[in-house]
Write a structure and sequence with these properties.
Number of strands: 0
Order of helices and strands: HHHHHHHHHHHHHH
Largest sheet: none
CATH class of the largest domain: Mainly Alpha
Shape: globular
Helix content: over 70%
Structural class: mainly alpha
Oligomer: single chain
Length: 289
């Protein structure tokens, strides 16, 4: 059975009904955590974990009080700066390397590209200690530099992704540009980049989201600093510990839910605006196949 026949529009009424039921069911499944978070953010302290999607007692005042309880603006500002720097640097550095692999032919190119892809097989835990020792020797532990500085050297996954896009561009236009005197960097900056905007946006959004939610790196490099230096994930994690009754807190987890909801909204907006580029990227890949 071909892929086209599997995803084709059902011809019968029964098929269309089944399809809509499945779509609604899966949509509800994926939306449930967000609905639970929204409901929990509107509840008083004692009802946060009652698993009810409709609060027995509405307490919208949580959205006002949370600003006095937590430095959310500082956390979001730190996360936004780090995410923009990390996404921007990895998009640019990965695309330069990917263009080199896609355009230039040189001895050992496939072997070198295979070694680049092999780095994806290394678990993050394997490289965590060496990376920490390097940043510590540079005196940058306790700053946000390690959270975006590692992206200056590209990412194997993004190099592979963008190389596939570059391979889909007609090589003739680059050869014609070379005959007109365009340099190698001009080929990348003036031709490859404008023609591959969907791939750049996809990589940027992927890395922005990964950096925005990166708790492990923040925990390793920022945990020794002040709370004002925290990113969103580290701030929420530290707040969970702070409010825990076992640590002398009062269990004010409603503020944690409000904070978690507020920092989720930017990601939803970002993906909503970038959705058409994801579709365009998939369509481009399909045409190349």
């Amino acid at each position: 059975m071909s892929t086209t026949s599997i995803f084709a529009r059902p011809a019968t009424l029964t098929g269309r009904v089944v399809r809509w039921i499945l779509l609604i069911a899966f949509s509800a499944l994926f939306l449930y955590p967000f609905a639970w978070l929204l409901a929990a953010s509107l509840k008083p302290r004692g009802q946060v974990f009652d698993n009810s999607l409709i609060p027995q007692t509405f307490q919208p005042q949580n959205y006002v009080d949370v600003w006095n309880q937590l430095p959310i603006l500082s956390w979001m500002g730190n996360s936004l700066l780090i995410a923009i720097l990390a996404a921007g640097f990895v998009t640019l550095s990965s695309s330069v390397v990917a263009f080199g692999f896609a355009y230039f032919s040189f001895p050992g190119r496939n072997i070198l590209f295979g070694l680049v892809l092999a780095t994806m097989m290394l678990p993050g835990a394997v490289t965590l200690v060496p990376q920490y020792l390097i940043w510590n020797s540079l005196g940058l532990v306790g700053t946000n530099v390690p959270l975006w500085g590692m992206n200056l050297f590209g990412s194997a996954f993004y190099i592979f992704l963008q190389r596939q896009f570059f391979l889909g561009l007609p090589r003739e236009i680059f050869e014609a540009a070379r005959m007109d005197g365009v340099g190698y960097f001009g080929l990348f900056w003036r031709m490859a980049l404008p023609l591959s905007i969907p791939s750049f946006i996809i990589v940027f959004v992927f890395e922005f989201q990964a950096s925005w939610n990166n708790l492990q790196a923040a925990l390793v490099y920022l945990n020794a600093g002040s709370a004002d230096q925290f990113t969103v994930p580290l701030g929420i994690a530290s707040t969970m510990t702070k409010f825990s009754p076992t640590n002398g807190g009062h269990g004010d987890y409603q503020f944690v839910m409000v904070a978690a909801l507020l920092v989720t909204i930017p990601m939803l907006i970002l993906f909503a605006f970038a959705q058409r580029y994801f579709i365009e990227g998939v369509a481009t890949q399909g045409r190349k196949g």
